[in-house]
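RECORD TYPE: inverse folding
INPUT: structure tokens
STRUCTURE:
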């Protein structure tokens, strides 16, 4: 992809309302995942591994933790004199200064897009966990001559109005002839993964038209409203991909990492997932500690029992404590003889000795950051 200059644009806040508990003090992009990662790590790594060296991250609110995580972009090899990583805070001529959709967000960074010497733009959200070669998407886009190429995955599922899923429909020539937003449907669907490729000049025209007509939403005002006039094509992704749009899907996506096949597909040797590096000691296990089928990050101290769970950096598990089917984030302290099952515990939570918290795999219990139970 290096022979053709490509600009990457990452939307960091587009789905915060669907994860209100966990995104109360952070962006969707900086939600912890998989023991040591943040959701944005997968999007950035996909772009970097595909040769994209100029990436802008659009923020809206609560982005301090995101800035702390990204820093200069060095961990993704994006700390460069020209291009590299650029964090784009909200800008709007309106009084609010907060954008109301992707098209509105793109209008706020018009100057950034115009200054870029890229020919193509890859746009992606942070709510999809996958490891995709974007250079193949770009190659198909160029070969097909499409105005817009959307990445999708075929899934058999039951959709409803609250599912936050965009479904693509194709004609016999592979062109998108309908776009449905969260339809009531049961069966196989072509679900849009919020990754799109478009030529920069065409994107600039779409943004200019959106500003002139006061249009805010890329999905409603471009994909749905203009699918008949634009040549929109699809790129089918056949690998593992999961969209994080609820606490249930977040919990399931983390639990999927306990499957070795998913691990091998998400973290292949030739396409690593980069993240902020922290130099911590390896996990320490007590004499009576038991740990089975779990992901345990550096810096953990385990003296109790851990089963089918994910422990982030620096978690302490006291003697006699039992953790099962749970996600324990960074810096948590689980007291002696505690019992946790199907629980999501945010950062820096203290669980007192003898406490018992139990949820269900379809409705895990969530404990807010910094709480004491």
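DESIGNED SEQUENCE:
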């Amino acid at each position: 992809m290096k022979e053709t200059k490509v600009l990457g644009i990452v939307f960091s806040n587009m789905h915060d309302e669907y994860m209100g508990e966990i995104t109360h003090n952070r962006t969707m992009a900086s939600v912890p995942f998989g023991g040591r990662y943040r959701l944005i790590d997968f999007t950035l790594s996909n772009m970097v591994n595909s040769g994209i060296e100029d990436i802008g991250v659009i923020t809206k609110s609560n982005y301090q933790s995101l800035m702390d995580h990204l820093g200069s972009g060095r961990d993704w090899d994006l700390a460069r004199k020209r291009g590299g990583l650029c964090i784009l805070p909200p800008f709007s001529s309106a009084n609010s200064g907060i954008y109301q959709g992707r098209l509105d967000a793109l209008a706020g960074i018009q100057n950034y897009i115009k200054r870029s010497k890229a020919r193509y733009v890859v746009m992606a959200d942070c709510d999809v966990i996958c490891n995709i070669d974007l250079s193949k998407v770009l190659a198909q886009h160029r070969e097909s001559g499409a105005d817009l190429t959307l990445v999708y995955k075929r899934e058999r599922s039951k959709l409803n109005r609250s599912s936050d899923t965009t479904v693509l429909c194709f004609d016999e020539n592979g062109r998108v002839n309908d776009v449905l937003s969260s339809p009531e449907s049961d069966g196989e669907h072509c679900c849009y993964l919020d990754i799109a490729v478009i030529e920069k000049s065409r994107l600039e025209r779409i943004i200019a038209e959106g500003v002139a007509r006061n249009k805010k939403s890329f999905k409603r005002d471009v994909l749905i409203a203009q699918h008949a006039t634009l040549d929109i094509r699809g790129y089918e992704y056949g690998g593992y991909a999961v969209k994080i749009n609820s606490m249930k899907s977040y919990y399931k996506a983390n639990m999927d990492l306990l499957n070795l096949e998913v691990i091998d597909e998400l973290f292949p040797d030739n396409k690593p997932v980069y993240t902020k590096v922290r130099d911590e000691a390896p996990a320490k296990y007590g004499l009576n500690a038991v740990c089975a089928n779990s992901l345990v990050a550096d810096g953990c101290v385990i003296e109790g029992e851990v089963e089918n769970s994910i422990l982030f950096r620096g978690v302490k598990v006291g003697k006699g404590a039992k953790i099962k089917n749970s996600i324990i984030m960074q810096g948590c302290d689980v007291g002696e003889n505690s019992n946790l099952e199907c629980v999501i515990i945010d950062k820096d939570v203290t669980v007192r000795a003898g406490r018992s918290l139990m949820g269900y795999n379809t409705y895990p219990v969530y404990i807010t950051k910094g709480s004491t139970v």
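NOTES: The chain has a mean pLDDT of 90.
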